[in-house]
Design brief:
Elements (H helix, E strand, L loop, with lengths): L1 E8 L24 H15 L4 E4 L1 H6 L1 H9 L3 E4 L12 H19 L5 E2 L12 H8 L4 E2 L20 E5 L5 E3 L15 E4 L4 E4 L2 E4 L3 H6 L2 H13 L6 E4 L16 H8 L5 H11 L1 E3 L14 H5 L1
Parallel strand pairs: 1-2, 1-11, 1-12, 2-3, 4-5, 5-8
Antiparallel strand pairs: 6-7, 6-8, 9-10
Helix pairs in contact: 4-5
Bound molecules: zinc ion.
Amino acid sequence: MLNALSIDVEDYFHVSAFEGCISPSQWDGYRLRVEDNTFRILDLLDEFGVRATFFVLGWVAKRKPGLVKEIARRGHEVASHGFAHQRVYNQTQNEFRHDIRKSKALLEDLAAEKVRGYRAPSYSISRSCLWAYDELLEAGYVYDSSVFPIRHDLYGIPDWPRHLFIVSKGSDGQWKPSASDVLSERHYDPWPSLTEVPITTLSVAGKNIPIAGGGYFRFFPYAFTKWGLGRINKSEGRPFVFYLHPWEIDPDQPRVAGAGMKSRFRHYLNLHRVEDRFRRLLADFRFARIQDVSLTPSRITTDRAIYA
Ligand SMILES: [Zn+2]
């Protein structure tokens, strides 16, 4: 089974956890580590023969255009993490429209290919800003990978589907998961629709447990992650969507002064363990780009078949 591997390309000082102590106007004062860290990930993926989806922040692409070209040159999918790394529900619809179009145009120019996917900063597409789908659709995105179906203080739509689905705008004007859940049927859907690729969770006793990346990958022992992800593949017969950030394999990154306890815990926990765990993950599971992973788990479809 092919699972989806995604990398959110941003630097350690962009994260929402530090937005209270580092403002965007200060970002240019920091020495960038994202390029070196992303290269380490690219080399690791080459070593394991894996292609992934890289959601690149426009701010990074503007300063490191060669990095985006290199990601594309090595056969990975270039997708958008927006431009300015502001949570969707903190932006006006107009600001969001501008942000996702600016990053898409820049990334397409650098990668010399169509950008199909979008991932919001901090998975911030929630019930309060479902208008984001109107904007993504109009800007020409084909899929979104921002919904985290969990309860969390900063993000999440806990009762939305746990696996890839079509989200469509019904006759009532509301965006919601479509009843038609087979991607190949999407062109029969009369309503405006996008594919949603939610971040994978493990369902235990009716509760969705985040397991597939980032801070959760650093928090749980690898044996638990391996068991949980294996269960999704074997018991549910579904691919999982895994995510990681380049700063998570960089234990030597400068410590941000003034960050709160919770933010520090979430950001710095077990950074020194990530490279080893990531190697084990790449050895234990099969991965591909999001655009290669279809809804029907046993069927590996081409990009053309999925998005025809
Ligand atoms: Zn981010």
